[in-house]
From TrEMBL:
Organism: Sporomusa silvacetica DSM 10669
Keyword field: Membrane, Transmembrane, Transmembrane helix, Transport
Membrane topology: Multi-pass membrane protein
Transmembrane segments annotated in the record for this chain: 12-34
Coiled coil residues, start to end: none
Localization annotation: Cell membrane
Domain Major facilitator superfamily (MFS) profile: 1-60
InterPro entries linked: MFS_dom, MFS_trans_sf
Official protein name in the record: Major facilitator superfamily (MFS) profile domain-containing protein
Length: 60
């Protein structure tokens, strides 16, 4: 989507917004998972979350 931006300023503003959104996403979801998932499964869920988030960053 950023390739359709009309100029560099638009790209920089969009990237800053994406960075802020993703920066707020990870701590919120990590906290939610650590509270809701049973202790026995917590390590597996947290590892999957971190791994999938990193994979998503690379694909984006």
């Amino acid at each position: 989507m950023l390739s359709a931006a009309p100029d560099l300023n638009t790209v920089m503003i969009a990237r800053a917004g994406i960075g802020l959104g993703m920066g707020g996403f990870l701590p919120a979801v990590t906290t939610y998972l650590s509270e809701m998932v049973p202790a026995k499964l917590r390590v597996s869920y947290m590892s999957a979350l971190i791994g999938c988030t990193a994979g998503g960053y690379m694909l984006a």
